[in-house]
TrEMBL record:
Organism this protein belongs to: Methylobacterium oxalidis
Protein name, UniProt field: MDH small subunit beta
One Pfam entry name: MDH
One Gene Ontology biological process: methanol oxidation
Biased composition range(s): Basic and acidic residues: 85-96, 102-117
Length: 131
């Protein structure tokens, strides 16, 4: 026995019925049935993003001035210089890099000078004559 407007599908599936007036998902998409649901989801996501952005920007520091936000960890001094945490670097060690850069610039000067004289670039400075 079938109700009015129903269609039985298949010989062995008497309980599976399809409403004659029901629309398919494709028909709903064509007519805009999911547009409202999509709009509501987008509005909820947008509102959530607006609420979350200020929380993401806060890093918990108290800045003395814009861009000056350094704070010592609890138990450490406000200034490192002169405290037990001061590394007290040796000036000779600090000057090693400056000296090596000066040597590099001198070698490059010799290479360029030799290349201008001879027209040929020589990488090895020991092969360049002192003339």
């Amino acid at each position: 026995m079938q109700a009015a407007g129903q269609l039985t599908v298949g010989k062995f599936a008497p309980r599976l019925t399809i409403q004659a007036g029901a629309r398919t998902a494709r028909e709903r998409r064509k007519t805009g049935g999911n547009i409202m649901r999509t709009f509501v989801y987008a509005a909820i996501l947008g509102a959530g993003a607006l609420v979350a952005l200020p929380a993401l920007a806060y890093d918990g520091t108290k800045c003395k001035a814009p861009g000056n936000c350094w704070e010592p960890k609890p138990g450490f001094p406000e200034k490192i210089a002169g405290s037990k945490y001061d590394p007290k670097h040796d000036p000779k060690e600090l000057n090693k890099q400056a000296e090596s850069i000066k040597g590099m610039e001198e070698r490059n000067r010799k290479r360029v000078e030799n290349a201008r004289k001879t027209g040929k670039f020589e990488y090895d400075v020991s092969k360049i004559s002192a003339n």
